[in-house]
Amino acid sequence: MTGDQPGSPPTRPGIVRALIDRFGHLIRELSKFATVGSVAFVVDIALFNYLAARGVEQVTAKTISTVIAASLAFLGNRFWTWRHRQRSNPAREYALFFFFNGVGMGIAVACLAISRYGLGAIWPGVFQTALADNIASFVVGTGLGTLFRFWSYRRFVFAEAGTPRVAEAGARTASDAATDRDPPA
Questions:
Q1: Which of 9, 39, 40, 54 could form a disulfide with 73 if both were Cys (CB 3.0 to 4.6 A apart)?
Q2: Any idea what DSSP says for residue 83?
Q3: pTM higher than 0.85, yes or no?
């Protein structure tokens, strides 16, 4: 089936091509975001384990490692992942990036704390181990935090030109909203 004859369904390459044409930019952004995140993730893991092995308490070690990895991620995302997007106020981008990264860090730290202190109080031999700390922090916590970060960075920090900022979106009036509706048929 080639899809060349009238009335025949389109071929798979046409569907694949249409999907790539429609979502290719998102796939490229996601790939770059994942690459930057992977580098930051390695820094986060290495630094966390280094600090924990040196006697720094686990939640403190996680907080320190995340802040350093986040600084690296900001630079990578600003100057590579979303370099094609118009730069707004650098201080605003940096502040929003770290605010949303703080929420993402809170997700990872909460997963670690729940595992270590919540579940660890019940099963200390299982949940108060280095393996459990790494799984809770880097698999569960980082996974959930990454989903939140990608959405928030793309939507609020490195927003495309024309995307209303949070303050601008909240300032819309009822008459603005009414003009967005389609006229009755």
A1: 40
A2: T
A3: no
